[in-house]
Amino acid sequence: MLLKNKFICLLFFLIGLSYSQDLKPLGKYNSVVSHNYYSLSYSEEHEQAEWVYYILNSSQFNATVERSNNFKSDKLIKTSSSQLSDYKGSGYHRGHLAPAADMKYNNISMSESFFMSNVSPQTPSFNTGIWKRIEKTIRDWSYLYGELVIITGPVLNGEFLGTIGANDVTIPKWYYKVAIDLDNYNRNIAFLVENKGSSESIKSLVVSIDYLEEFSGLDFFHALSDEVEESFESSTHTGLWNWNVKAYPKSSVTIMKNGTIDHTKDHLPSNGKIYRTNTGKKYHKENCRYLSKSKIPITLNEAQEKGLDPCGVCKP
Fold first, then answer.
1. For 129, which DSSP code?
2. What pLDDT, on the 0 to 100 scale, is given for residue 196?
3. Is the pTM of this model over 0.90?
4. Is 4 a residue whose pLDDT tops 50?
5. Which site in 99, 269, 278, 296 is 20 to 30 Å from 167, CA atoms measured?
6. Residues in CB range of 164: below 8 A, 6 or more apart
7. How confident is the model at residue 271, as a pLDDT?
8. 3-state secondary structure at position 100
9. Residues with Cβ < 8 Å from 208, sequence gap 6 or more?
10. What residues contact 22, with CB distance under 8 A and at least 6 apart?
11. How far lies 115's CA from each of 67, 95, 99, 124, in Å?
12. Whole-angstrom Cα distance, residue 253 to residue 51?
């Protein structure tokens, strides 16, 4: 019975994907490969995807699905994808394009996220810093707004930082990530980010889709009518997104009927104070044992901007 229920859930999820409007972009290579939970266009020249496309619905995540870390070659790439050996000793991370944390539906989706066709050489400070912050914000937006179409990848039309491995995997200088609300096309956003560490606000990295198209050489949302495209691609629409959504963990979020967040259940210590350490990646309550060596006051917004997560011990 349990297996049957899991199959039914997977079937309905895939049916939902198939009935969503196809908003895949047009690129230079257009060598499209479709997995169960995402599609991509692979560039043999650069040994990575020029874009990855998927539908994100955070409310359907399964908390029991764990990250697999089982990186493997993508056998659907006819010319063969990059290999693990290309990254070994390179100093670059195998940076996910469709992040594993966006694929927590079941073990199939998680496994698919570790195909080598879904990774690209990213500097460690980029992958674990600004890129991770953008990914987390978009996941929280999906929890708040519902299904989002995500299109993400490296910019393979311009400057590069060299190559790695026997397969000469290109090291991109820039990455992009686009999200659009399926129920409101005006709620769309595009990030353009350099492949290096950054402490900038992610909001400062937003560009219009028109600008990103010119910069990347990709044509986004070409399946829509010209009239619809022109109505939203020239602006950034930052005002249509809740930029404080990361401050409210899903366990305590209450969405009001008008789409706003109920602030009466904000997840903060009773005294409203949180702290960080000199080197840690968490924020803490005032009396947490991890603050024994350093204790730096910080606001919740500052903690979120720095990509800090709540401590699992003191649970701020």
1. I
2. 97
3. no
4. no
5. 99
6. 86, 87, 90, 92, 121, 171
7. 53
8. helix
9. 190, 233, 234, 235, 236
10. 223
11. 13, 11, 11, 19
12. 32
Q: How confident is the model at residue 264 (pLDDT cuts 50, 70, 90)?
A: very low
Provide the token pair at 51: 């874009």
Two tokens, residue 251:
């366990």
Contacts for 303 with CB less than 8 Å, ≥ 6 apart: 274, 276, 283
What does the angle CA 191 – CA 197 – CA 199 come to, to the nearest 5 degrees?
75
pLDDT surpassing 80 at residue 5? no
Contacts made by residues 248-251, CB under 8 angstroms, sequence distance 24+: 248/140, 249/310, 250/58, 250/140, 250/143
What tokens does 93 get? Answer: 């991370």
pLDDT beyond 60 at 306: yes
Q: Highest mean pLDDT: which of 61-70, 206-215, 252-261?
A: 206-215
Query: Where exactly are the structural domains of the chain?
Result: 7-247, 268-310
User: What number does CATH give the domain 7-247?
Assistant: 3.40.570.10
Chain CA centroid to CA 193, Å? 13
In terms of phi and psi (left: phi > 0; alpha: psi -120 to 50; beta: otherwise), the region of 288 is: beta
